[in-house]
Amino acid sequence: MKRKMSEVTRRRDGRPAHHWRRDVVELAALFTAVAIADAVANLIGHGPDGPALLLISAAVLVATAAFHTWWARRHGHAPPAADTGARPRSPERRAGPPASPAHEPGATGTARTLWRMRTTVRDEPGALAALCAAFAGHRVDILSLQTHPLGTDTVDEFLLRAPERLGASGLTRAVALAGGTGTWVERADPHDLVDAPTRVLGLATRTALDAAELPVALRQLLGRCTIRTLPTRPAPSGRTPDGVPVEGALEDTAMRLRAPEGGVITVERPHLPFTPTEFARARALVELDARLGPRVPHGRDVLTLPEGGAITVRRAGPDDLDAARSMHERCTPATLGLRYHGPVGDADRYLNHLLSPRFGRTLAVETESGRIVGLGHLLWDGDETEVALLVEDAWQRRGIGGELLSRLVGMAVGAGCESVYAVTRSANTGMVAAMRGLGLPLDFQVEEGTLVITARLDATTAPLTSRLPHDGVREGSFRD
Length: 480
Fold this sequence. Notes:
- The chain has 13 helices and 17 strands.
- It is an alpha+beta fold.
- It folds into 3 domains: 111-193, ACT domain (Alpha-Beta Plaits); 196-233 and 245-292, no CATH class; 300-474, Aminopeptidase, CATH 3.40.630.
- A hairpin with a 5-residue loop joins strand 11 and strand 12 (372-381).
- Helix 6 packs antiparallel against helix 7, helix 6 (196-209) packs parallel to helix 8 (276-292) and helix 7 (213-222) runs antiparallel to helix 8 (276-292).
């Protein structure tokens, strides 16, 4: 029984079982071959040209053996050492996902990179298949695909996982050979693995909860772009203001949409035209924002100051205009000058812009009596993001500015911003200390007494937490 089990196991492993009859046959064949070789050698060796014939025969035998070995390796008749021998490998590529680059001949490693790619092809049968075949030839995985019809052409947008050695230039070259034109490539991150409908629904939810999310949602929907909100200008009779119809306008690399509160939202993306599908998605988000009207999250955080006493940090909006003006009246001209970099008498004029959720987010610090003593602003400045602080004189040097700045930077990280910058006077040591306290890489630029401090962020930067201890939470959680 043990003998049979051993033979079955060896057969499953792909190794043939040995028998004594086979050994006897092989030994008899070996002796027969030696006897024949000895007879032939004696016959030839005693002739006049015997030694020469033996050498020629040996050379032919060696050449034949070498040719047979080369032929077997070239055509794959002999299985590789790692094969079990159960069945020969099929020379054809099997269906399914490609093997890892580490298992491909000539692969240099397993490192792979995520890319977002967009290219234009003719809207005809086989055009997309040619692109897919080009990707397969370079061991590139297609993780997602969106198509944007444009009449005679189609814009195909891919999320790809490619061997790191291929690079952006290699991808572009492969697509060009497959018929793609106007190709655009940039690095992607794991967040892009979410499918388009899920991403759009998530952005719509964020916009519904907070009016300040609209510019952020548009930027995340459309990729790297510049978004600005312009006021409405009077228009000649018979024309719409700014020449933009109610449904908006699409112009190659720019789109213009009617802002819900009036004015125009302009979105620009150099070198990459918008498609009608992208325009329709952006217009749907703006229409959702208009239907919901002004809204600001109402969560509040109650914090304890180092010397005692409690303050409340909450989101601020247009309803806080009068309280913010009252804080301006309690601030000294020097404090207002450090914040607004212009005539002190004009400070109140900035508040309508700063408190509008269309231009960013504002945090307010309230005392126990409900008086605002500090404001922090996160402002969407085109494709950049600005942070600004104002703390009433009597409440400075208590950690309020650092608390506001930490929360604002946390919001910027959550919005996917690459950096934030602050503009102040070079003599504003409080703002410099607050920026240094973030613990982030900083760049300083000084020009004619104006200091610009830029903090660099990236996808690995963790959202910054509160610096002051919590005394409690009321009216729901505070929303970043």
